[in-house]
Amino acid sequence: MSAQLTETLPATGPGLARAARILNEGGLVAFPTETVYGLGADATNDNAVARIYAAKGRPTFNPLIVHCADLDAVRELVQWNHLAQLAADAFWPGPLTLVLPMRIDTMISRLVTAGLDTIAVRMPAGETARALLRETGRPIAAPSANSSGRISPTRAGHVLDDLSGRIDAVLDGGPCPVGLESTILGLSGTPTLLRPGGVTRDALQEALGTRVAERHATDRISAPGQTRLHYAPRARVRLNATEFHDGEARLGFGDTECDLNLSPSEDLVEAAANLFEYLHRLDATGVEVIAISPIPHIDLGIAINDRLSRAAADR
Ligand code: TXA
Ligand code: MG
Predict the structure, then answer these.
(1) Atom of ligand 1 at shortest distance to CA of 182?
(2) pLDDT tens-digit profile of 41-76?
(3) Which ligand is the nearest neighbour of the Cα of 36?
(4) Which atom of ligand 1 is nearest to the CA of 122?
(5) What's the topology of domain 7-214?
(6) Where are the domains of the chain?
(7) Is this model's pTM higher than 0.85 or not?
(8) Superfamily covering domain 236-311
(9) Which runs of E-coded beta strand occur in the chain?
């Protein structure tokens, strides 16, 4: 792809209209959702979807999530079922992605699903995302707007630092309130948690009235940031640091002395919202090691620890 200028667009009427036009003409636009910034392209346009993989340096066997404005749009893509309806009733719009069997008459580019016979779909809650989806009037494929293997962006500035010159525009809608990627729930067979995220497994089990299996590393369905080296800052990451060493950047949680604190009051929702922004900030100082306080392995802490363990994986 040739070098290009990346436009920064405001999340206002004219900015949204411009972003929608770029998408509808086959361009790439990064946009905020309630979870993280996504790198959007028209999911029905093979060329546009191929450009996503190129801009991210993403392996083409890793499929993309399709974002829709409403349930009618979702049901044109996938074979809907009762559990999907319960999940949608409880969590959509919101930070939950459903993996469902693909409809054979779908218009979606086969590059989106990377050859699988399922599609990951989600109806995001972020106002800017919703307005953009309404304005384009089509399904938008969007992975997180970062180079493959790097930390997901929760600010327009993160996107620009990483992808400027490789995408057409970024729609600046401010920071993402959830700060962690969506939970991915597989519903094409036994309900299975494919990636922990903004919605907890307990909340899913309650809404579905059934057990949600945990995914095992040996499972065949390859997907959710499952490569170990995902969400990695440049610095090395040291987990469960109960004390900090000289020269380390200190990312704390709870009542501790540190450089940045995910949540002094031990609020996991606040910690999730701050996680990627603080990792970006500490990484930008050029430090060699980021040491991170233990995070309780409950509720959103499970998704936080999932991302942290990948960030800390051996390189
Ligand atoms: O919160 C989010 O989900 C963000 C925002 C932008 O929506 N998106 C996001 O996309 O995190 P990405 O590409 O970084 O992660 C999507 C994950 C990938 O790891 C992919 O393997 C998995 O979803 N996935 C996509 N389609 C799938 C499918 N048909 N079956 C199983 N997993 C799938
Ligand atoms: Mg990602």
Answers:
(1) 1
(2) 999 999 999 999 999 998 777 899 999 999 999 999
(3) 1
(4) 7
(5) DHBP synthase (3.90.870)
(6) 7-214, 236-311
(7) yes
(8) Threonylcarbamoyl-AMP synthase, C-terminal domain (3.40.50.11030)
(9) 7-10, 29-32, 37-42, 65-67, 96-101, 118-122, 140-141, 169-172, 183-186, 192-195, 213-214, 236-238, 249-252, 260-261, 289-292
